[in-house]
Amino acid sequence: MAKLSLEELRALRAKESARLEKRDIHGKRVHVVVGMGTCGIQAGAKVTLNSIVDEIEAKGLKDVIVTQAGCQGRCDMEPVVEVYTPSLGAVAYGKVDAKLARRIVDEHIVGGKVIDDHRIDLEG
Amino acid sequence: MGFKNYILVCGGTGCESSKSDLIYKTLIEEAKAQGVADQVQVIKTGCFGFCEQGPIVKILPEDSFYVKVKPEDAKELISEHVIKGREVTRLLYNKTPKKPLEQVEDIQFYQKQLRVVLRNCGVIDPEDIDDYIANDGYVALEKALFEMSGDDIIEQVKISGLRGRGGAGFPTWMKWNFTKQAEGDVKYVVCNADEGDPGAYMDRSTLEGDPHSVLEAMTICGKAIGAHQGYIYIRAEYPLAIHRLEVAMKQAREYGLLGKDILGSGFDYDIEIRLGAGAFVCGEETALLQSIEGHRGMPQPRPPFPAVKGLWGKPTVINNVETWANIPVIIAKGGAEFAKIGTQDSHGTKVFALTGKVCNSGLVEVPMGTTLREIVFDIGGGIAGGRKFKAVQTGGPSGGVITEENLDTPIDFGGLQRIGSMMGSGGMIVMDDSDCIVDVAKFYLEFTRDESCGKCFPCRIGGKSLYNLLDKITIGNGTEEDLEELKTIAHAMQKGSLCALGQTAPNPVLSTLRYFPEEYEAHIRDKKCPAGKCKKLIRYAIDPNKCIGCTACSRKCPVGAISGELKKPHSINQAACIKCGVCRQTCKFSAITVE
Fold first, then answer.
1. I want to staple B287 with a disulfide (CB 3.0 to 4.6 A). Which of A12, B202, B297, B492 is the partner?
2. What is the ipTM of this complex?
3. How far apart are CA B412 and CA B426, in angstroms?
């Protein structure tokens, strides 16, 4: 590695900070949980997860973390995605395909509106 | 997409001694074997502080905090957590799945803590300079080199109110300013990493978890005072810290953050490591400088202070590791920002190594002004085994005991001095009612007696005399006159010793005499040790009403001092008993008593 100039050090920091940010939970406002039980994966949860992560990266959203969880007990509705935001609380969606995944990011996380027709009740 | 999960494995010495290195390697192997090597990054990081629960493994972004992890758990962590996204609840600290957006900081151990010095410990990989840079590393150096003059830098340190964390609490900016103003072309910067208090490991953990912060700070100081060479004096017993420092220095040189013309600024600066042989006295700054020069580590009279005449007779700034680790934050965020933390008397935070009879021993960083009660009971979780709190020793062998009545004293330099102790470097040893206070004083005097360099007689002879008197009291031969003599010798040592080792060595004696006179009296007048610790003054006996004659104790007794028939009460032959206490630990019926 060659010696750095001031500009190179700043460029390196910008790049590395973005990398470090992905491991950091602090200051995150929104938490997206994708059900990745056997039932979820079979129903396509991996595609769902990737779509959500890609869409968040494409939109440059910094305050969202995406994590996985096991089966939530609604195997008939998999892939299941839960979204937690301070304003809307916990909302769960069922049968989330790649298209709906992108809508969740656009309309729910960015727009702050629940997509009513795909909402499911996890408690029931 | 990049990594889905990040696994942080504690690479501090405490966790490494319980196989965290093997856990780290096994996690990498398991990730490969289970085909998810491209989805998970395993990172070895610095001390999380929660040593009691180690080895610690933290998985992000879920922020799952796994404790007491074993190498054989690696397989399950990968297959369950990483692949299926299910937390392995049996390994979690609170054994229940986390709620969304709940953070590790919500654990009570972390709630009252504020991590400034340890900001990168448990966050970055200390052996990867890119991780340090990512977390605002070398931002302060940029500012210092390109935007600030030497006086600007010293002004910010002055505004911050930072005082030396090595024990004495001398204002850091004044040391820098004296050295800057001293005559001479050649000046030096020294880092004191000769941490020697029994039970203290703040500096080791800082160097192991965040070596670059110290390198960056020393370089900033070099710019401020006009020095081009720094030395880190570290004891050879800290191999992991030395290794991490060496790796960090190599990476910094490759990036041109050490060496000639740093970042194209025209400023040259480099750092070398000097290994110490682990003598406690070499933590004293003049002895330390002697040792770097290759002489025997013996303190020199001050003045002249190192700021005027230090290493090889040149003006030298010498600060301890924790002081250095604060500097990048002060320069990057401004002294005023730093000064908002803490009390009027002492700004910033303090790191303590919390050990002894406390539930959660570990590395703790709190804002100045936090009370001892908060540290021992809220963060430390109170006294282990449900016993009763007796005292805390702060300041190591140079400090004193703090008792129940002073637990609500806010911790800062002045506050601790007023109650007869001192800040010291940050060792904090908690004692319960089974600790004998005379025995504790004897332990510290044995330490300072052995570590005295022998140069001046108040320390050399005084320390030995204090030890002998304490020993005499613990074996039941003490007299009332001995108490007076302890005080006389102690005051003479305080006044007559050359360096802080001798001046402060009597503190444990004076402070225990002040707070626990009745315990000394019990040893002298009644020939009893109330804590049941001093062997010559205690007697084990068997309560015939409780003993069922199970023979368990007589089989365990190493000297065959217990006899009796099966199913009948046993008895102890006092002449043969060596008072090891094994019978008491063995008995399931609480039939063994201590008097």
1. B297
2. 0.82
3. 11
